Amino acid sequence: MKEFIFKSFEEMTGKDYETVGFKSGLEIHQQLLTSKKLFCRCPAGMYSEKYDAEILRHMRPTLSELGEYDGTALMEFKTKKDITYRINRDTICTYEMDDTPPFLINEEALDIALGCGMLFDCSIVDELHIVRKQYLDGSIPTGFQRTAIFALNGKIPFKNRQIDIVQMSIEEDSCREVSDSGHSRIYLADRLGMPLIETVTGPNMKTPFEAAEVAEMCANLVRSTNKMRRGIGSAREDVNVSVDGGTRIEIKGVPKIGRIPLLTYNEAMRQWNLLRLRDELHKRKITKDSFSAKWEDITRLVKKVYYQPVRSAIEQGLSVKCVVLSGFAGLLHWQTQTDTYFSKEISDRVRVIACLTNIPNIIHSDSRGENLTSAEWLNIKRAAGATDDDSMVIVWGNEIDTDTAVKEIIIRAKEAAIGVPSETRQALRDGTNGFERILPGPDRMYPDTDLPPTRITSERLEKLQVNLPEKFWEREDWYNQLAIPQDTIRELSISKFAKLFKYVVNEWKINPTLAAVALIQYPKRLKRNGVDVALINEEMMREIFKAYKDGLLSRHGILVAVRKSIVKGKFYSELLPKPVTTKEIDETISAVKEEMKSIKLFDEENTAKVLMGLVMNKVRINVEGKIVSEKILNHI
Amino acid sequence: MNDNNYKGYRGKALSVLKNFNAQVWSDAEIITANCNYKGIILPRSETADSFHIVIKLRVGYNIGIAADKVLDIKIEGRKEAHYKIPEKEFPTSPNKPKVKLLCTGGTIASRLDYRTGAVIPAFSPGELYSSVPELAHYCNLETEKLYGVFSENMGPEQWIGTAQAIGREIEKGVDGIVIGHGTDTMHHTAAILSFMVQNSPVPIVMVGSQRSSDRPSSDAALNLMHAVKTAAESNIAEVMVCMFGPTSDYYGLLHRGTRVRKMHSSYRSTFRTIGDIPIAKVSRDEIIPLRHDYKQRRKDRNVIINTSFEEKVSIVYYYPNMKPDIIDSLIDNGYKGIVIAGTGLGHVNKPLYPSLKRAHEKGIAVYMTVQTLWGFVQMYVYDTGRDMMELGVVPAANMLPEAAYMKLCWALGQTNDPAKVKEIMLTPIAGEITEREPSNGYLIYQGGLPEVEEFISKYVK
C-alpha cells in the first residue's frame, strides 16, 4: 500500500486522489411527475405528516430464486424490529399496505422513464420484468421494492471522455423514516409507491468534484424532459466510493448534490485509514486467522461506577459486558474520518444491529474522554483478563441485545484485520458517514410473480423519441454562440421553454437575449413580486412573442403582458397596450420638456439623454425606444 | 431432447436457444447489435410469449431480450438454482406437547418455485424449523404432506382423506393438529371437517397465509406460530380457523369452523366469524378466550370420524331475473340437494316456484340460506316465504351458505330420507346454527364516521 496521509479536504489535489485510487459512481434517484403512483391508483406527490391509522409489521428473510439468503436480510432479521407504518387514507390504499396485489404498471410513468433511457443513449430492454428487491429494514411494507431495469449500456460525454450509464430502473419509492429507537422503527407512508427512476453510472469519476459534476449533469438531463417531480426529497443520490485496495461502499440518500464532494472525500479517507489500520494490525501480527477476542459479564464489577450511562444501566437492572480485543491497544482511537475514529465503526454496528440506540452505547479503554476512572478500568482489566496490549470495549443493555452487541463488536474488530467491509452507509450532516447496513447483493432480487412481463415495442419507442428534448449540453453550445446572458444558459437549456426559444429565435428572428431574458428572468422577477409563475405556459409565451414580432408590443411591454396573462390564465389580444400615436408621443415629449425647465442640468450636452429617459419612463410599455429617440432628435 | 433444458420456451425463442445450444440455467453472454448481456438464462413462464429470452443479469435483475435480435450466445458455465430451504433438525423435548402438521397445499406450507410458478409443497419439520425456529418453543412437531393442491382444487377426496388422517393422528395420541390449507376455500374445508370429525379430544387448527411465505412481510410465519401454539396449548377441542385478527403482525383469531368466512380477496385479516364472535384471541405469548362455550380438551381418544359425502349438491346464488332453467338443469342432471342463497330473509322470485315444486317432488332436498350472510332465514314474514316453504324449501336458520352446502353433502351422504336429512340439517352439531345472534355478532363499522375513525386511529389496524 502506498504511503499517503490524507490532507484536509481543502488541501487535497487531483493528484492526491489519483494516488489513493479514488473512484466514484452514482445512483441517481428522481421521482417522475405523474398524476398517480406506480403500481396503484393513489394520487402522487401528496405529502402529509398527518396519519389516520397505524399498522405493525415484522420482516423475515426469505430465500432468493437461486436458493440463497441475502446477507443484509439476515442482518436485518437479527435486529428484530417492530415496524410501525403511519398511513393517511388519502394517499395510501390497501396496495401500499400490502393487503392488495399490485395493479398493472403506470404506463405514464413507464413512458417518462423510457424517454429518459433514450436521452442517456441506452439500449432499451425488449421486455420489462418487474422484480422484487428485498428491503428488510421495513422501509417498504411488503419487505421488497418492485423495480425493473428498462435501459442498459448508455453514456454521457464528460470532459473529453465518457461516463458509462450502466443501467436504469423504474421503481416505487419507499417510506420516510420518522424514528428508530431500540426495537421500534416508525415510518410515514406518504411517499411510498411514488414512481421514480434510478440511473446508475459506472465508477468513472476520479475526484469528489467530478462526482458532483456528473450528478448535476445526470439530474439536468432528465429534468430537461420537464417530467421530473421537483421539490424536497424528489431527487436523491446514492454515491459509491472506493480507493485502491478498498471496497465499493454505497453512501445512501444524499439529498443535495452540493454535499457529494465532502462526503466522498470522507469516505475515501475512511477506507484509506481502515487499510492503514489493517497494515498496523498485520504489523502487530493480528490477521483474520490469528485475531482473538473474549468477553466477560462485568455487571457486578461496575455496580458503583460514577459514569452516568453505565450507572443508569445498573439502576435499570441491565447487563454490562466487556469485550477484550487482543493486541488492539490504542487502535480504537485510530482516525477514520474527520474527527471520527475506529470506535465509531463499532458503536454504529452496536446501534444498528443490537438496537442499542442511546449514544454513547459503548466506551473503550483507548478513549481520551472521561468515562470510568483508571482504578475502575484496572478492576475490569483484571477480571476480563486483559493485558496492556489489548483494548477493552464495554457495552450495556438488556441480556439479549448485549449478547448481540458482543458478537457484533467482535465481528467488526475482526473485519479490521481483513480490510474494508462491504456496507451501505448513511450520509451524515457533517459530511462524514455512518453504518447503515451490510451491502446487499444480487441474492436479494426475486422475480415478481404478481405481474406479467411487459413487452416494449419499437413503435412505442419511436413515438416517444419524437418528443424528446435535445441534449442540454448541445443547447448550451448554441446559446453560447448566441451570446445570451450567462445566467440564463443552464436554466434555459433544461427549461420547458427551450423549444419555444429555438423557434422564436430561428423562425421569428427575435433577439436571443430578449427571448432568453423573457423566458428565464421575467418569471423570476414576477415570482419575487408574489406572482404564481407556475401558470406561465408555452402557449402564452408564444402568443406574447408573436405580438412582439408583429410590432404590437414593445420590448418593455413583454413583462407586463406576461403578468396580465398569468392573471387571465391565457394571453388575449385585449391585454395588449393601446398603440401610441405619433401625436401622443409628441405631446409627451413637449410635456416632459416643460418639466425639464425646472431641472438644472450639470452638463447641457446630456439634455437629449435625460429627455429620452424621462419620456421612456412614460411610454416604454407602448412604444420602442428607437421611435422615441428619432422623435426627440427632431424636437431638439 | 429433454424439454426441461429449455423449460417454458417455445417458437422463435426456443429455436434461437437451441441454435446456440443455450439451455436454461446457462451462465451466458447474449450478444445483440446494441448491447451484450451477461447473466443466467432463466426458464420462461409458460404463459409468456414466444419471442423473448429471459436472463438474470449479474446485478440480480431480470430482463427479456427479443430472440430475433440475438446474434450470438456464448456459454460460460451453468448455475442451476438449488431451491432448497436449509434444513435444521427440529429440536425435541420430552416435556413439550406433540403437534402434527398436516399439509394440504396452499401458501402456508409451500414455497413458490420461481422457475415454473409451481408450488414446492410440504415443509419437513427441519425446513420449517430453519424458516420459523420459534415453532420449537411450543411443541415437538411432526409433519405430513397429505396433498399439494391449491385450495380451489380441494374436493371430496381431499376432505375425506384429511378427516381420516385427523382420526389416525388422534388415535396415535397427538396433543393437537394443525392443517396447512390454501385460504380461498379454507372455510369450506373447516365446515366439512367440523361435521366429519365429531367429538375430537384435541384442537384441530386450520391455518394458511394471505401473503406467500416467499415474501419478507408474509403472514405465514406468525399464523403458523399462532396455530401451533393453539394446537399445543389451547383447551379448545374444536375445528378452528386461525388467521390474523388485524392486518398488523399482532394477534390471530380462532374462528369456529362452521361460522367463519373469507371476507376479503387479499387482506391479511380476511377471515371473520359471521353472526357471532370468535372463540379466542391468540398471540405468540397467550391464548385469551373470548367465550367459554367451546368444547374442552380431553385425555381420551374417543373421536368419531364420519366421512359420508354426497357430491351431487349445489349452491344457487339467487339473483333477480333468475330463470327457472337454472333449477331445472340441476334437477335434470340428477342433483340430490340444492342450497339457495336467497335475498333478504330468504327469497327467490315467483317464476322459480314451479321448478322448486318439481325439485321437491323428485325428492331433492332444497334448503334456504341468506346471501346477506348475517342474520337468520325467516320465511314467515312475507307471503313469498310461506309460499316457498309449501313448495318444500326448508329454511336453514343462520347457517352460512357454504356451511349449509357442506352439511347437506354430509347429510345426503348418510341418508336419502328427506325427514332424516332435515333432522340432520337442522340439528346444530358444531355451531353451524346458533340459537341466538348476539348484538355484537354483526359489526361492519362504516369508515368515514368520526367515531369509527377515532377508533381506527387509537388501535393498530
**CA gyration radius of chain A, whole angstroms:** 32 Å
How many beta-strand runs of chain B? 23
Shape of chain B: globular
The low-pLDDT segments of chain B are 115-119
Rg of chain B (C-alpha, Å):
26 Å
Helix content of chain A: 25-40%
**Oligomer designation:** heterodimer
Number of domains as seen in the coordinates of chain A: 4
**Ends distance of chain A:** 83 Å
For this structure, what is the CATH homologous superfamily of the largest domain in chain B? L-asparaginase, N-terminal domain
What's the average pLDDT of chain A? Answer: 91
Q: Count of helical segments of chain B? A: 11
Q: From the helix content, strand content and strand pairing of chain B, which structural class follows?
A: alpha/beta
Per CATH, the class of the largest domain in chain B reads Alpha Beta
Percentage of residues in helical conformation of chain B: 10-25%
Q: Which stretches of chain A of 5+ consecutive residues score pLDDT under 50?
A: none
Question: What does this entry look like structurally?
Answer:
- The complex is a heterodimer of chains A (636) and B (461).
- Chain A is α+β, with helices and mostly antiparallel strands.
- Chain A folds into 4 domains: 268 residues, no CATH class; 125 residues, Gyrase A, domain 2; 93 residues, no CATH class; 54 residues.
- Chain A is 37% helix and 20% strand.
- Chain A contains 19 helices and 23 strands.
- In chain A, strands 1, 4, 6, 7, 8, 11, 12, 13, 20, 21 and 22 form an 11-stranded mixed β-sheet that branches. Chain A has a 4-stranded mixed β-sheet with strand order 2-3-10-9, with no helix packed on it.
- In chain A, helix 15 runs antiparallel to helix 16, helix 17 packs across helix 18 and helix 18 crosses helix 19.
- The longest helix of chain A is centred in the middle third of the chain and has 24 residues.
- The model of chain A has no long low-confidence stretch (mean pLDDT 91).
- Chain B has 461 residues and is of the alpha/beta class.
- Chain B folds into 3 domains: 76 residues, SH3 type barrels (Roll); 208 residues, 3-Layer(aba) Sandwich (Rossmann fold), CATH 3.40.50.1170; 114 residues, Rossmann fold (3-Layer(aba) Sandwich), CATH 3.40.50.40.
- In chain B, 25% of the residues lie in helices and 23% in strands.
- Chain B contains 11 helices and 23 strands.
- An 8-stranded mixed β-sheet of chain B has the order 9-6-10-12-13-14-17-18, with helices on both faces.
- In chain B, helix 8 links the parallel strand 22 and strand 23.
- The longest helix of chain B is centred in the middle third of the chain and has 17 residues.
- The radius of gyration of chain B is 26 Å and the shape is globular.
- At the A-B interface, strand 2, strand 5, strand 6, strand 7 and strand 22 of A face strand 3, strand 4 and helix 11 of B.
- Strand 5 of chain A pairs antiparallel with strand 4 of chain B, so a sheet runs across the interface.
